[in-house]
Amino acid sequence: MIELLQAKVPFAEYARGLLEQEKEFLREARSPAERRRIQQLTAKDIISEAYSYGAGWDEFGPLLRRCQRLGFADLTHQIHVACLFVQSLPRFPEKTPQAFAMLREVERMALRIRKTHYLRREGLQAIAHARRVAEAAGIKPER
Q1: Which of 40, 42, 43, 56 lies at a C-alpha separation of 20 to 30 Å from 71?
Q2: What interhelical angle do 32-52 and 75-87 show, nearest 10?
Q3: What is the pLDDT of residue 3?
Q4: Which branch of life, at top level (predicted)?
């Protein structure tokens, strides 16, 4: 995978490589929970790369739905995906209501974490950053 990243290959080729690697790991998985976790982590990696490659909704949308269908490995994974969705809005502004609804939901979850816990602080910082990025692009949450 590192070779693909360093070679600056097109997104589709990188995603294909990750899915091939996922298949190999799935064959070695010993339980359904382990298989699910492998799929969740692969989906997170692919959607992160889709964001960095500047993918449009035709590529980003199915990856987002795959993440949602598989569930999230943990709250940090869910916050990460929600932040990527909001930060991607300049490429598909028609999805603003859905993106900010997802961001508000993960923010509610983060606020339920004990105030002194580092995950709460880091999660809320990531959410605030995503909002600033969207605002800088002229996108405001619809209330």
Answers
A1: 56
A2: 20
A3: 58
A4: Bacteria
Helix, strand counts (H, E) of the chain = 7, 0
What is the C-alpha to C-alpha distance for residues 44 and 59, in angstroms, rounded to an integer?
14
Give the global pTM. Answer: 0.89
Structure token digits, residue 73:
């490995």
3-class DSSP state for residue 106? Answer: helix
**Integer Cα distance of 71 and 81 in angstroms:** 11
**Tokens 């923010």 identify what position?**
107
Query: pLDDT digits over 52-99, tens only?
Result: 999 999 999 999 999 999 999 899 999 999 999 999 999 999 999 999
Which segments of 6-84 are extended strands (E)?
none
Q: Are 83 and 48 in contact (CB under 8 A)?
A: no
